[in-house]
Amino acid sequence: MSEMLTIRNDADLLEEEEHHSLRGREFGFWLFLMGDAVIFALLFATYVVLSGNSAAGPTSQQVFDLSHTAIETALLLVSSLTFGIASLAMDKGHGRAVILWLLITLGLGLGFLAMEVLEFRGMILQGAGPDVSGFLSAFFTLVGMHGAHVAMGSIGILVMIGQVMTKGLTLPVRSRLNRLGLFWHFLDIVWIGIFSVVYLPGVM
């Protein structure tokens, strides 16, 4: 009887330590996310200051294609929705559904990245590269930084798919998936800011 109580106490201690460790990681993640928000705020401020500095190069009205950007926006917004559905499936313990919706989210994210690469390539071929003017340098830095984050998030989704398949929906896996979901939704919010501050005023 005493041995059973000892085993139970040890299990409780391990679970408590695991919860404490996960809370520490979640706190560290929030610090990272706040730092990332500051970086994007600085990039937004830099773009606003330099947006009118096109020098002798092309202006935003000449290089921006709002229909192309609208498709990118739709892909990212829908990917945020599908990640939310994956989170709901995780709460219900449906591992296969989590994997399915994460795969759909990954496909949408990769589609967004492919369209962004095509946009950058088309602009550079038109002579509107980041070295042409302050406006284009700020544009490529801001939008490129967001794209790099989406690429990192896509790698994270791929890793989480592997973890759900091999480990199941354990407490650490759920915690990682929740943190990745916050990161992905954060990128969605940043993109809405880019669409509103960069693209919409740029075509007017």
Task: Describe, in plain words, how this protein is organized in 3D.
The chain has 204 residues and is an all-alpha fold. 86% of the residues lie in helices and 0% in strands. α1 (2-50) packs parallel to α6, α3 packs antiparallel against α4 and α5 (134-167) packs antiparallel against α6. The protein contains six helices and no strands. The mean pLDDT is 90. The chain has helices at residues 2-50, 60-63, 66-91, 95-125, 134-167, 171-202.
Strand content: under 5%
Quickly give the structural class.
Answer: mainly alpha
Basic shape: elongated
Percent helix: over 70%
Q: Averaged pLDDT, please?
A: 90
Summarize the structure.
By secondary structure, the chain is an all-alpha fold.
Layout of helices and strands:
Elements: H1 2-50, H2 60-63, H3 66-91, H4 95-125, H5 134-167, H6 171-202
Give keywords:
about 200 residues, mainly alpha, 6 helices, about 85% helix, elongated
